[in-house]
Amino acid sequence: MTAYRHKTDTVNTARRKQGLGLILALLLVISYAGTVSAARIKDIANIKGVRSNQLVGYGLVIGLNGTGDKDDKITVRSISEMLEKMGLTVKPDDIKADNVASVIVTAKLPAFARAGSRIDVLVSSIGGADNLQGGTLLFTPLKGADRKIYAIAQGPVSTGGFKVGGKSGGGVQKNHPTVGRVAGGALIEREIKSDFANKTKLVLSLHNPDFTTASRTVAAINKTLAAQLARTPDSGTVEIDIPPEYDGNLVGLVTVVENVGVNPDMYARVVINERTGTVVMGADVRLSTIAIAHGSLSIQIRESTNVSQPTAFSRGGQTVAAPESDIMVKEERVPIYVLESGVSIGDVVRALNALGVTPHDLIAIFQAIKAAGALQAELEII
């Protein structure tokens, strides 16, 4: 009897542990699902003052296989001045630029970039060059908006494509060979001064300003830091006071803050691209009850020429060409549909699919619905 009771207790204990394990697993899944649905602050906002800076410069790409700027005056003059700086005087009339191309070099100088680091540069032809494949970018200073030199670019150009043509005009082209990239081609020479470590507060700028999103961000940060340190003065800014435990360790505070999860809110919006026929609807788009009839009227005109000529062995007459036109008008018979008020984007889509409309028809329908005042969303045409 004792052995049987001991065996029963063991089974019950195992079942309780198994049930407890299932409950913990379910809680983990729920917690994970809630975390996944939220976006990190680092993905919806940036730290004020921490950004990249644009650099630009003018340079020459040499070593092209006859696909350069040819007799472009700017390129020829640039070659002449470059050679003169090297101690070689050559008249512009004696220079041929078949293997040289004038280019504009652009780059982004990251925040906190240090002297000696390398960044990628983009090379774009501004002359008559057909192809930059196989070329080499010569020494090119890159300047910022203050006209100071921050980096020097030089190196082989990779176009990621090619262009091959024959003398008669035919050819094959892949991608865009007049634009290329030099990976790690710019060496940073000047640093941008920053007082980031001496900040007394951290300021976040939301990518899409919204009062609800800003309020949720403040609540999430205060909950994570267990103190009322964050506040929002407007819909696009969140200010955070630096707590004493992070004094002198602002990087640690940023690491904590940027990984906080927030559910961003958005406006109900329908975006329409008439050029491509693209329609994108937000999750909060609603339709009031409305009746819709959408059909099409097609008119087809066919032009033909009827030739009348005399029969064989006739003594008179002449050939006459008489134009004829056949006009056909066709109008589709489409019933009227009543769309009830939609409570979700799925209801709206199902109701519109019931009409069997195409994307271009959908554009016209949404414009008409907006004009009728039944679209409870912002309609944006791009």
Describe this structure in words.
The chain is α+β, with helices and mostly antiparallel strands and 382 residues long. It has 3 domains: 53-161 and 176-188, no CATH class; 196-262, Alpha-Beta Plaits, CATH 3.30.70; 270-309 and 320-381, no CATH class. It is 26% helix and 34% strand. It is built from 7 helices and 23 strands. The strands form 8 sheets. Strands 3-4-5-10-7-6 form a 6-stranded antiparallel β-barrel. It has a 4-stranded antiparallel β-sheet with strand order 2-11-13-12. Strand 12 (230-234) and strand 13 form a beta hairpin. It is flat and about 110 Å long. The N and C termini lie far apart (82 Å).
Summarize the structure.
This protein has helices spanning 2-37, 41-44, 73-85, 211-225, 250-258, 345-353, 359-372; strands at residues 39-40, 45-47, 53-62, 101-109, 118-125, 136-143, 149-156, 162-165, 171-174, 179-188, 201-206, 230-234, 237-241, 261-262, 269-273, 278-281, 286-287, 290-292, 297-308, 320-331, 337-339, 375-376, 378-381.
